[in-house]
Amino acid sequence: MSASLAPECNEVKERYDSCFLKWYSEKFLRGNASTDECEPLFKEYRSCLSRALKDKGIENMLEEARQDMKENDTHHLRRS
Amino acid sequence: MKVFASDCTFDYSWEEVSTANWRKYCPWNQSSTHVIAVDTLSRGVDASTGILRAERLITCQQSAPKWINALIGGKDTSHVYEISYVDPESKKVTMCSTNLTWANLLSVRETVTYQPHTSLQTKFTQDAQITALCGGWQKVKNSIEDFTVERFGQNAKRGREGFEAVLEMSRRVFGEQRERQQHDSMKMAA
Fold it and tell me: What do the Gene Ontology cellular component annotations say (chain B) (predicted)?
């Protein structure tokens, strides 16, 4: 798996990524996405990453991009 | 504005491609070494459609020519924000991305899709719109756009080669895992 931009988050990211990949291939693609066993790991990873994004000043850039990219949801978050 | 578009077919099923896509930039990929980190910002399944939506932040090692770096005060890394949508029912992956770094100077909007071509093949399409936003001479804008399109094409080619390597490794590892599982269950049964 790929690294995190914050080296201190690498360990928890690795565990989350493995969990996600297993969930994706074994559950989500087979139509069993009702449970999400990776959520606790994701929360842990996310809180580590949030600190790094703030420290590196990336959070503000991200917020702008999120606003600009919002329209994509209208096109892609629906059944075609 | 300039447009870069390409498409190709991978000789792997959509399930294999859409799974391997999540680890496209792992160490198995020796061709896209400019990508140094991939972080997940959010992910969730939309309750009404069943579509998986994930936001990621991709960090790249900067490799712009000196004149561009000098123009805008270069940093050594750049960032891309990406939203992925996966519809498991219609079997479609759509990824939309935009550059975070140099956003005042340049807008690079990319859309990538993966869809089944046959049951054993997957079709990939890529479309990028590149627009220089800075004021000033048209000549400078054109040079920035031309350079970005060229670099985009190089990275797309490398990305494809690297992804092929990831697909091959994924299939091999998955095959070995399955063999081991079968072996273990046979041992248990014996």
Answer: mitochondrial intermembrane space
Contacts of A28 in chain B (CB under 8 A): 45, 52, 86, 88
Q: What is the pLDDT of residues B160-184, one digit of tens each?
A: 888 999 999 999 887 777 778 778 8
Domain ranges for chain B, please list them. 2-189
Q: Which pair of tokens denotes residue B65? A: 């020519």
What is the domain range of residue A28? 7-75
The total of structural domains in chain A comes to 1
- Between chains, do A77 and B23 touch, taking CB under 8 Å as contact? no
Q: Does the residue A1 lie in any domain?
A: no
**CATH number for the domain formed by residue range(s) B2-189:** 3.30.530.20
Residue B73 region, left (φ>0) first, then alpha (ψ -120 to 50), else beta? Answer: left
Taking the CA of residue A39 and the nearest CA in chain B, the distance in Å comes to 9
Q: At what angle do helices A39-55 and A10-26 cross, to 10 degrees?
A: 140
Q: Identify whether the C-beta of residue B37 lies closer than 8 Å to the C-beta of residue B58.
A: yes
Quick: pLDDT tens for B103-141: 888 899 999 999 999 999 999 999 999 999 877 778 888
Among A35, A80, A71, A69, residue whose Cα is nearest residue B87: A80
